Amino acid sequence: MNTNKNTTRDASYFQTSGALLLATKDWTSIVENIPYGLGALIFNFVLYQSELIPRWLSVWGLIGATLLLAMGLLRMFSDSDSVILLAIPIILNELVLAVWLIVNGFNSYAIASTIVGVLFITALVSSMLSGVFLGSIDDPDYLTAVSENGNKVLIGVLFQLILTVSVVAIPIMMFPILREHNEILALGYICARIFEGFFDAVMAISQLLLLTLSQEFLKAGAPDASHFKTLGALLLATRDWTSVVENIPYGLGALIFNYALYQSELIPRWLSVWGLIGAILMLAMGVLRMFSDSDSVIFLAIPIILNELVLAVRLIVRGFNFSAITSESEKTATN
Q1: Secondary structure of the chain in the HEC alphabet?
Q2: pLDDT for res 272
Q3: CA distances for 33 relative to 28, 58, 118, 187, angstroms
Q4: What is the mean pLDDT of residues 109-120?
Q5: 221, part of any domain
Q6: Which of 13-22, 281-290, 306-315 is predicted least confidently?
Q7: Residue-level pLDDT at 191
Q8: Range of the domain at 176
Q9: What is the pLDDT of residues 123-135, one digit of tens each?
Q10: Any residues with CB less than 8 A from the CB of 309 and at least 6 apart, and which?
Q11: What is the model's pTM?
Q12: Residue 74 falls within a domain, yes or no?
């Protein structure tokens, strides 16, 4: 009798684990449509405003990106795969765009400062909003609470994906500008923020898996909650450790970025010095959180958050000091 019970219990554990692995694959294939669509929307909006390509092509891209986002949202909230057809316009658009760029190319400096400023604000706002909607994950009875607040969790994850796209898009937009002054720093900034975006994406996936686990827990009627709690604890640990570790590439990226800005004088030096101090404090916070359980050190993130907010407003209103870019380009051409 005990053997049969143990066998049933083991089978239940493997079925739950298998369901989580399948959910990882399924959720990842769904979630990737959101940053893809957001990236395409931002990209084509920039192209439309700057007229770097014919506007009919960027309008086509905007429509395709909107349809792709719609597809991603529909797949998140329903089980239908028939909506995959909505991806066709953006796929064809990117094929035509690729041919156009190979033949004609475009100027990569247009309206960069405004876009970077908007991206900094988008990252800050989406980070705060994701925390508002993901509160059920910190509930003591999260295995029940997460499923009961499923739509809120999905909305919170959407904001986290917007954050992911924003932090990766910023260094990509900045690369042509920073490269004029120091290509190594420009590449280092891209690498640091890609790592940060990767950790944000891992956090988003772990929270979607918690939603799946919570749904499986309620379906099973919790006859034996031990393995659900074990898997839940692992997913919570993944989320918590990821939120700690991501502070390191975030701090490193801010350090590289502000040092490059200080060297190039693309912004007033007092602002880049403020950013350097904030980046060092962010790195210190990340290290302290790795070696202690105290959340009291979170206040060390305030200087860099305020710095990025001030920087974003300045970039939108005043832009970079493009005379610094021009002079650097002239030096390069002379050499």
Answers
A1: CHHHHHHHHHHHHHHHHHHHHHHHHHHHHHHCHHHHHHHHHHHHHHHHHHCCCCHHHHHHHHHHHHHHHHHHHHHHHCCCCHHHHHHHHHHHHHHHHHHHHHHCCCCCCCCHHHHHHHHHHHHHHHHHHHHHHCHHHHCCCHHHHHHHCHHHHHHHHHHHHHHHHHHHHHHHHHHHHHHCCCHHHHHHHHHHHHHHHHHHHHHHHHHHHHHHHHHHHHHHCCCCCHHHHHHHHHHHHHHHHHHHHCHHHHHHHHHHHHHHHHHHCCCCHHHHHHHHHHHHHHHHHHHHHHHCCCCHHHHHHHHHHHHHHHHHHHHHHCCCCHHHHHHHHHHHHHC
A2: 94
A3: 9, 19, 22, 26
A4: 76
A5: yes
A6: 13-22
A7: 93
A8: 111-334
A9: 988 888 888 888 8
A10: 120, 121, 124
A11: 0.72
A12: no
Q: Give the residue-averaged pLDDT of 252-277.
A: 94
| Residue 284 lies inside a defined structural domain of this protein | yes
Q: What is the pLDDT of residue 110?
A: 45
How many domains is the chain partitioned into structurally? 1
Owner of token pair 């031990």 = 226
User: For residue 32, is it within any domain?
Assistant: no
